[in-house]
Write a structure and sequence with these properties.
nucleotide-binding; 6-stranded parallel β-sheet; 17 helices; 497 residues; RNA helicase; single chain; 8-stranded mixed β-sheet; 15% strand; alpha/beta
Length: 497
């Protein structure tokens, strides 16, 4: 019985999963009693020995119930919400409609939020109903709380942890930085109901993490590799996990974590609730979701096509490789006003070289990348967030999950290896409703990305230079030195498109 919720279990919230896929899940989404492809229903799973648990906590408020279908459609259209699935609940338009217990509402009020973001408005009722969920939304959209607040309700409805129990909620994240930021939110919003959590990631001593696990924690936020180490050394187990979150699932696949994810998920009970959260929806993630989700809801904020945050002004300069550093310095002279500036490079060596060069030239720069120790990475992030070092160079380790609220400028010194990474990089600015500017150095070697980059710029209503359009059509790049408006200085900003 719940510690904080007296509602009884809704038997309809239970569902079976196939376990013969090697991933603890089914090979197809389920819809009602038939497969999505029209074949016969999947066979039942033997859940003998598994204690039933509560996971359907959603009670529709009278004001939401009173919404007509046309009002729902209008709300979703206005907020660019697209939904799919069986019996999709109506969105909640205010916090009072969520049905969250008082201990959650107090934390929301304390945080000063005024209304749910689109992903929260539609994602909260979906997650609270106990069904599997696919959530796709751009970075900075509030998706962390979209799964954490239902997770807190879920935890408080389960029996207390017994000695030797593992967590009830497991959140998998691709990077240490994202995992730490998720933990900060979990600590803030779980404090009122005394929910314990820990963050499990590599690059730091295992001792403190082991002690947390042995004491017992309801929520574990983890990167896949270190979690597997903890499982194999029997420092924890996943037998009590009933709420599983994969955050930035696309990034985890990009980083080669699919085998580890499958290994972890295979150890979790098959009737769990699983939530996939991502900013993009590539085929690889869709395939993984098909293997592990049953009868899921799907919510997309904005277009399912790759697009950039419209709050970010994007400026692209076609430039030769050997002119990059001088352009960078000139740009910094123009925009440096004490705000945070994040500079992305492709390689760790490049990060260190540019940082060293900037510091020799008197710029307050530090770098962060995968070869840094966790202690050094934490220190660099702290210096950057505090403004003591307002310039930070980084590899794609910081492209996702880095949530520094006042990053005003992002500079792509090197163009990334994919358009998805471009969108995530520039998404480090313009977060939580703020505006920002992203500058990108684009060379002849990046020409294969020109067409898709033009599409992203046009979709976001950005000005696109004729030179970039020409490259997108297969024309050779302009002469070395880049392009500029006749008679204008680079530092005026008018050369940027």
């Amino acid at each position: 019985m719940s510690r904080y919720d007296s509602r009884s279990v809704d038997p309809a919230s239970y569902r079976e999963r196939r376990s013969d896929s090697g991933f603890g899940g089914s090979s197809n989404y389920r819809s009602g009693t038939r497969e999505a492809d029209g074949s016969q229903p999947q066979r039942k799973v033997d859940l003998d020995g598994l204690i039933p648990f509560e996971k359907n906590f959603y009670v529709e408020s009278p004001s939401v119930a009173a919404m007509t279908e046309s009002e729902v459609d209008e709300y979703r259209l206005k907020r660019e919400i697209t939904v799919d699935g069986r019996q999709v609940p109506k969105p909640v338009t205010s916090f009072r409609d969520t049905g969250f217990p008082d201990y959650v509402m107090q934390e929301i009020e304390k945080a000063g939020f005024t209304e749910p973001t689109p992903i929260q408005a539609q994602g909260w009722p979906m997650a609270l109903k106990g069904r599997d969920l696919i959530g796709i939304a751009e970075t900075g959209s509030g998706k962390t709380l979209a799964y954490l607040l239902p997770a807190i309700v879920h935890v408080n409805a389960q029996p207390m942890l017994a000695p030797g129990d593992g967590p009830i909620v497991l959140v998998l994240a691709p990077t240490r930085e994202l995992a730490v930021q998720i933990q900060q939110e979990a600590s803030k919003f779980g404090a009122s109901s005394r929910i314990k959590n820990t963050c499990i990631y590599g690059g730091v001593p295992k001792g403190p993490q082991v002690r947390d696990l042995q004491k017992g924690v309801e929520i574990v936020i983890a990167t896949p590799g270190r979690l597997i180490d903890m499982l194999e050394s029997h420092n924890t187990n996943l037998r009590r996990v009933t709420y599983l979150v994969l955050d930035e699932a696309d990034r985890m696949l990009d980083m080669g974590f699919e085998p580890q994810i499958k290994k972890i998920v295979s150890q979790i009970r098959p009737d769990r609730q699983t939530l996939y959260w991502s900013a993009t929806w590539p085929k690889e993630v869709e395939q993984l979701a098909r293997q592990s989700l049953i009868d899921p809801y799907k919510v997309i904020i904005g277009s399912p096509e790759l697009k950039a945050n419209h709050s970010i002004q994007q400026r692209v300069e076609i430039i030769s490789e050997n002119k990059k550093y001088s352009k960078l310095v000139t740009l910094l002279e123009d925009i440096m006003d004490g705000s945070r500036i994040l500079i992305f490079l492709d390689t760790k060596k490049g990060c260190d070289q540019i940082t060293r060069q900037l510091r020799m030239d008197g710029w307050p720069a530090l770098s962060i990348h995968g070869d840094k120790s966790q202690q050094e990475r934490d220190w660099v992030l702290s210096e950057f967030k505090s403004g003591k070092s307002p310039i930070m160079t980084a590899t794609d380790v910081a492209a996702r999950g880095l949530d520094v609220k006042d990053v005003k400028f992002v500079i792509n010194y090197d163009f990334p290896g994919s358009l998805e990474d471009y969108v995530h990089r520039i998404g480090r600015t313009g977060r939580a409703g703020a505006t920002g500017t992203a500058y990108t150095f684009f060379t002849a070697a990046n020409g294969r990305f020109a067409k898709d980059l033009v599409n992203i710029l046009e979709e976001a209503g950005q000005k696109v230079s004729s030179e970039l359009v020409a490259m997108a059509r297969g024309a050779p790049p302009p002469p070395p030195g880049g392009f500029r408006d006749r008679g204008s200085r680079y530092s005026s900003g008018r050369t940027w498109n």
